Amino acid sequence: MLGGYLRERRAFWARACAMSAFALSLGGKPERAMGRNLALVGREILSGAPLEHIPLMRQIADTTVLAFEDRG
User: Fold this and answer.
1) Helices 10-25, 55-69: crossing angle, 10 deg rounding
2) Residues 24 and 9 sit within 8 Å (Cβ to Cβ)
3) What is residue 67's predicted lDDT score, i.e. its pLDDT?
4) Distance CA 5, CA 57 (A)
5) CA-based nearest residue to 55, from 38, 71, 34
6) Distance between CA atoms of 39 and 67, rounded to whole angstroms?
7) Which residue from 30, 54, 67, 72 has the fewest beta carbons nearer than 10 Å?
């Protein structure tokens, strides 16, 4: 999942991080801090870093596999 499908979707996930980070930046202090962290994750995704080293991407891969398996 990380080496194939998600690798091809880097721009999608980086954009999702950026949009979420922007929305969080409009909130209170805890939300702004979370938004900064999410923006940094988006930057790391676009940097070409191995997705296996990005915890959020591992979580997305695991959740994607579980959703696929639950389709029946």
Assistant:
1) 110
2) no
3) 92
4) 12
5) 38
6) 26
7) 72
Contact 11, 46 (CB under 8 A): yes
Q: How far is CA 57 from CA 10, 12, 25, 27, in A?
A: 10, 12, 22, 24
Grouped pLDDT means (10 residues each) for the chain, 72 residues: 86 96 94 95 94 93 91 77
- The DSSP line for 3-19 is TTHHHHTHHHHHHHHHH
How many C-beta atoms lie closer than 10 Å to residue 49's C-beta?
13
Residues recorded for the chain:
72
Global confidence as pTM: 0.81
User: Which of 39, 51, 54, 52 has its CA nearest to residue 9?
Assistant: 51
